[in-house]
Specification:
499 residues, alpha/beta, Rossmann fold, 3 domains, six-stranded parallel beta sheet, globular, binds 2-acetamido-2-deoxy-beta-D-glucopyranose, UDP-glycosyltransferase, transmembrane helix, UDP_glucos_trans, transferase, membrane
């Protein structure tokens, strides 16, 4: 009996003191903030959580210990003018996905040249577990590789089809909405043969880009510390001990999953405080028929928008004089904006969305924005700009509380019609409320369940016993897709015919 008590107390001691390092892409505020609520939940259980990333300028306080690598003085490729050109004017496909992986690799190569001491110092702290941003952070992956510590893949949107395939999820991604849904396919449906072809191309294209092009760039970036046969992103995914995703289960189509998969994203947090006097006064103007919030996330900078697109927004927002419009943007207030439009570089987004007078959220469709629209039951209009935003917007549209704006079709008439369509029809509001009513209907709160799964991982020293993982991880695609069995059919037919 004493022994058991002793073992138990030892076990709890380990749980109390687990040290976890989350490694994200360069200046990766967007990815990090998708994961911070889970990190804060782990802190409640007594774990130590830290965040690693390369920084080019000061960033916000993430409420975790900081293990930043100061790269100020170098150029951050992720914020180039070319990026804004893509965001406002180009299609975004799985091919574009190679670019940020290459940027991440160039940056990592530089870190290992100029800041290797700092990098090693962080890697060699006594971490129990590494949490890896699924996208663009090879220097973070290498910390787990060289120390031999277990790692978890953290997905700030859903588990990308390439990563999911590497991990042996055996999802039929042809029957799911593609990660990079083309901007012209807001009517995507798996009933249509052609649409399934588009899904399949996106799936296999992503797998090729991620393991091939992105894989090669990362091998190159890490060549000095992981020599031949070099780092393999494919194997890194396969060997991860768990995959956690911020994509709410209720928003995403049902797909096959394994034991080592969990979505922690199905939760809503009420705003911590109310609106300040200044905002309160603006939105409660008795002449206002409602508040419209225009906010395109932390990355899109309107100062770099093409002039004609900017003018279209400005002119249309000026026409909505019955409403109070809040336009989140950096820089000075543009000339010619009317009184009913308030411009600010910082907007209390969550509080505004939860305010009873808010009638529309006009945004880019990043997953965090879609979730804020869901949690505040706000009718939305999404104009996807890059990454998987079109897919997120489609998910919201398919729940009936949002419409999608095609950035290629943007004109004053087009934008105004869509805004009026959403604010003047009650169905968007009632669909939003209906969806929210069952959104987080779970046996236990998602973050608590995620914390439980971490606790269990720590109990097994960071890796579950072998039986926990699917056999497919160790088999080739030829075997797991039964191609080696199906090949019998033509052979037998051939034999019969040739007789
Ligand atoms: C990063 O380094 C630069 C100089 O190389 C320094 O001026 C700056 O204060 C440092 N930033 C932080 C957050 O330490
Ligand atoms: C999408 O479907 C709606 C309703 O079925 C239809 O009105 C609209 O024209 C379709 N749009 C496209 C681009 O096919």
């Amino acid at each position: 009996m004493m022994k058991i008590v002793l073992i138990f107390s030892l076990f709890f001691e380990f749980c109390d003191s687990a040290k976890v390092l989350l490694t994200v892409m360069d200046q990766g505020r967007s990815h990090a903030t998708s994961i911070t609520p889970l990190m804060h939940r782990l802190q409640k259980d007594g774990h130590t959580t830290a965040l690693e990333m390369a920084t080019y300028k000061k960033d916000m306080d993430f409420g975790m210990e900081e293990r930043f690598i100061n790269m100020s003085g170098f150029e951050n490729h992720f914020i180039s003018k070319d990026f804004f050109k893509i965001a406002f004017e180009d299609e975004f496909t799985f091919i574009h996905q190679a670019v940020p992986f290459i940027f991440g690799s160039i940056s990592c190569d530089r870190i290992l040249k100029h800041q290797k001491e700092r990098w090693l110092e962080i890697a060699n702290e006594d971490w129990d577990l590494f949490l890896s941003d699924s996208l663009f952070s090879p220097c973070g992956y290498a910390m787990a590789e060289i120390t031999g510590k277990p790692h978890v893949m953290m997905h700030s949107s859903d588990v990308e089809s390439a990563h999911g395939s590497f991990k042996g999820f055996h999802r039929n991604y042809a029957l799911m909405v593609p990660n990079f849904l083309p901007y012209s396919m807001s009517n995507f449906t798996i009933q249509q043969w052609w649409h399934r072809v588009v899904s399949t191309v996106d799936w296999f294209g992503s797998a090729f880009i991620t393991s091939g092009v992105a894989g090669f760039a990362q091998k190159w970036a890490l060549r000095s510390i992981i020599p031949f046969p070099f780092f393999s992103f494919y194997d890194y995914n396969r060997r991860s001990v768990f995959s956690f995703t911020d994509m709410p289960d209720t928003l995403y189509p049902v797909g096959a999953r394994t034991n080592d998969y969990f979505s922690f994203g199905t939760y809503c947090n009420p705003p911590k405080s109310g609106l300040t006097e200044e905002w309160e006064q603006f939105v409660n103007d008795p002449k206002s028929k409602g508040t419209i919030l225009v906010a395109f996330g932390t990355i899109i900078d309107w100062r770099f928008a093409p002039e004609e697109k900017f003018e279209i927004f400005l002119n249309v927002l000026n026409k909505l004089t019955d409403y109070r419009v809040i336009w989140s943007m950096k820089g000075d207030r543009p000339d010619g904006l009317l009184e009913h439009v308030k411009v600010s570089s910082w907007v209390p987004q969550q509080q505004i969305l939860n305010h009873e007078k808010t009638v529309l959220f006009l945004s880019h469709g990043g997953l965090k924005s879609v979730k804020e629209a869901v949690c505040s039951a706000t009718p939305s209009l999404f104009m996807p700009m890059f990454a998987e935003q079109m897919r997120n917007a489609w998910l919201a549209k398919s729940k009936g509380f949002a419409r999608i704006l095609n950035k290629f079709h943007l004109s004053e008439e087009y934008l105004e019609n869509h805004i009026r369509e959403v604010v003047e029809h009650k169905s968007y509001q009632s669909n939003a409320e209906h969806f929210l009513s069952t959104f987080a209907d779970l046996p236990m709160p998602a973050l608590d369940e995620a914390a439980f799964k971490f606790k269990r991982l720590f109990k097994y020293n960071g890796k579950m016993p072998k039986y926990f993982y699917p056999k497919a991880i160790d088999l080739s695609y030829i075997t797991t897709l039964n191609l080696d069995i199906l090949i019998m059919i033509p052979i037998l037919l051939g034999l019969v015919v040739s007789k």
